[in-house]
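Sample intake sheet
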Amino acid sequence: MDNNCNSIIKRILFVLVNIVSFPCVYFLELSNGLDPSWIFALNYINNSNAKFGKDHFFTYGPLGFLGRCQSVGSNLYTGILFWILMAVIQIYLYKRLFQYVEHMIYTVIASVLLILALPVSEADIYLCFLNLIALLLVYRYEDYFSKWITVLLSGVIFYSNSQERYC
């Protein structure tokens, strides 16, 4: 009876977490002013012929536009595909986390942290959070596919945000 109850709670929590956090997408409208200008610059630089790092120096890397996609060139379509991939990765990681973790409290804590962090977090913090879950699965439970997810997420984090404040 206790295992059946835990199984039902895990399934409900799994569905709830993935539904609540699924729209964690960062698309922004084009707008005027000084504050949104750096977001436009990230998107414009990606579609220009100039070299990133040579012609443009920015605190975000060449994939920085993924965190704040705008309809500049093909960025919006690239961003949509990227965030669909991140949603699939999140669902996979949480599915594996819910399968592996013996103690229900760890999955509840991870779920609550993700849901509470979503309204105030930026895209790069969300990616770091997914990377930490993947690292947990790799080192604690030797989940092979999570190794490749860790490599992918680490590369995206590195090339999208070169600031030292994250990860």
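Comment: The mean pLDDT is 75. Helices lie at 2-21, 37-47, 75-100, 104-117, 123-141, 144-160.
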